[in-house]
Amino acid sequence: MSSLSTPSRLLSADVLRVGTAGLRTRPLRVFLSALGIAIGIAAMVCVVGVAGSSQAGLDRQLAALGTNLLRVAPGHDIQGQAAFLPPEAIPMIGRIGPVTAVSATAELTASHVYATDKVPADQTGNLRVLAADLRLLSTVRAGVAQGAWLNEATAKFPVTVLGATAAQRLNVVTVSSRTQVWLGGRWFTVAGVLEPAALAPELDYAALVGWPMARTGMGFDGHPGVVYARTEPDAVRDVQAVLARTANPAAPSEVEVSRPSEALTAQEATDTTLDALLLGLGGIALLVGGVGVANTMVISVLERRSEVGLRRALGATRGHIRLQFLAESLLLSCLGGVGGAVLGIAVTTAYATSQGWPIAVPVWATAGGVGITLVVGVIAGAYPAWRAARLSPTEALTAP
To answer: Could you tell me which residues are beta bridge partners of residue 76?
Structure first.
């Protein structure tokens, strides 16, 4: 009698066994239900992972380029007219103690660059011609993809260096001594092609000529258009505060000072809106997956009423039945969650590698995704488990 009065127990191993048994008998339905969960988790992991990898790539890029570059440009006067920087702005900025490098460019608005002299004058391709100081590349930390940069000799002659985009639009594929473009009404030899300049993107769309050549042969008046100043890293704010007064002491209000690295950071920040949208879509996919799991479990209860009745007749309690179907729901959701996390990491890795970014998938995103699936599993399986437990043995065994 004592053995008959002992309450039946369901061990953890038994819960796992009976939970997986129901899933193994319906593999296609289980796969489709888990797929909804997997898509939602994969979307969330991808959004967080791609955003993290992008940020890591930006941090690495800024570490290489430096955040201590300042850009000085003319603004507008009190009447709204375009202002000018004095020719002395470059050496005056160079005298600021913490400034380690200074260079400048100036747009030659009367000159345009074309692939040949047969191109109509109005088809400029949105390219500009810039007079460039020889220290420009070292100041902005840009590189040469092909050929060579201007030097003391070539800066005095009709020689140009093309930005990355300008070279593409002018169909300059390789650089040799015979590579020429039609610039300012005469032929210029192309000495080199630059790599994309992250901190000075205006250089990508320009044909750069030497400062002396622009002064002697192209009507350049010597007023710099943009001055770039590289400072000591811990003195950026202090230098930024005095640059306007130093560049144009007579009219500091007509000078605009900016920090190119902040523009890169701001551009990165704009991606957060898209990230939020994608997270929302991932949440919707996860909700749809949860509904799919609930639907699967409800149908499973209806199909397995005779099984429930038999187990109840053999001594299984309502708690055992609830635990069985709740375990099935949790296992189904966990299967989708783990699969989604693996898929999200794989997609993030592939995309980050294609962009040349470091792979950065936060552990909290992966662990959180799997944790969310467990919550979804509990919620989705609660009603079907309760409904299964409410079936009486007689009703379940006599059900059609």
So the answer is: 82
